[in-house]
Design goal:
The complex is a heterodimer. Chain A is mainly alpha-helical. Chain A starts with a helix and ends with a helix. Chain A is built from 14 helices and no strands. Chain B is an alpha+beta fold. Chain B has two helices and six strands; from the N terminus they run βαββββαβ. Chain B has a four-stranded antiparallel sheet, with helices on one face. The longest helix of chain B has 15 residues, at 65-79. The radius of gyration of chain B is 14 Å and the shape is elongated. Classes of the chains: A mainly alpha, B alpha+beta. Chain A binds chain B through residues 22-23, 25, 28, 202, 205-206, 209, 212, 262-263, 266-267, 270-271, 274-275, 278-279, 282, and chain B through 14, 16, 37, 44-46, 48-55, 79, 82-83.
Chain lengths: 310, 100
Amino acid sequence: MDPVVLFFILGVVARLAKSDLRLPEALYETLSIYLLLAIGLKGGVELAKHPISTVAPQAVAVIAMGLVLPLLAYPILRYIGRLNNFDAAAIAAHYGSVSVVTFAVGLAYVVKLGVPYEEYMPLFVALLEVPGIVVGILLARLQSLKTVQWGPLAHEIFLGKSVVLLVGGLLIGWIAGPTGLDPMRGLFFDLFKGVLALFLLEMGLVAASRLGDLKRAGPFLIAFGIIVPIIFAVIGAVLGKFIGLTLGGTTLLAVLAASASYIAAPAAIRIAIPEANPTLSIGASLAITFPFNLTLGIPLYYQLALALHK
Amino acid sequence: MKQYPKKLLVVIGEAALEKFLVRDIKAFGAHGYTIADVRGGGAHGARDADWEGNRSIRMEIICVEEVAEKIADHIITQYAKNFSLSLYMSDVSVLRNEKF
């Protein structure tokens, strides 16, 4: 297990043991801004090395996946889980969108194994943030599409901090190139894993404090939060293989498909679907899927990618 | 020194509501507001402000009674059903009448 995951477990244990450990909110904010920017920058630098003709078809396929995943999650939530329309749509949006930190841990895993991967993958992270949220909102409002105020909503979705920082980082990295970013290498690239570890300590505290939500969420959502990511990972891995990604890239696309958003989606969905109970979507995404992916999911998705690449 | 009676309306709610509240109170004619980040708990469980989705704000608006009541009524009908929200009002005295 990668040591960064041990930091996450430390956070979980500290919260469960009722330790008074608490990271200042401003630090959480700073670390998350750093991670989003650093991931974007790294992707942008690598993107500049690849012709658009290679990346564009892959990007289209990845966006299509982002649109399809919530459509698959919704009927499961609505008809097997018997959730109401709003809750089903909100949770579908969370699982259609992606978790940047899960991606970062997946990246650390792939790098540690030394398998090849497409270093411009952060582009796919940025592309996958939005479609799931949009489809989720459409699902919630199918009966009343005319009442949706798309202007303020688009602002919320496209100018949320995670999209701004990821896309901004990608663009800066792409424009500046490796030599331009060289003076910042120490901060944005070398310190990355240490910052990720600190952030995961905080996420351990946060995830453990949501465990109480599981009582309200019930057994269906707990099962959903583990089984659906595995199914989605299969879809991501098969797509990754199909669009010609390497072993590491396939693993990472599976990780992205399996991950559920807890930064971009909760903020946008709270505004767009206020009727949905955030305890359910955030409980499932943060308290079940995130820890599952970090500990067992990522190694499993790697094995999946490995099987496809044999 | 002459004092003028006004109402202090305090709204404690989810940080996600901030920009909507600011927009709404201006539309109802309030001249200003003060916002602070806060932590607390209630019917929606503990809101610890430990990450984005769990932040709360306290918004204070000083205005004439009529405006305060209109704002409070609007906030309750518009947001109280789906968001964690507390409101209260109290009497205050201000020193510069024209500011509020």
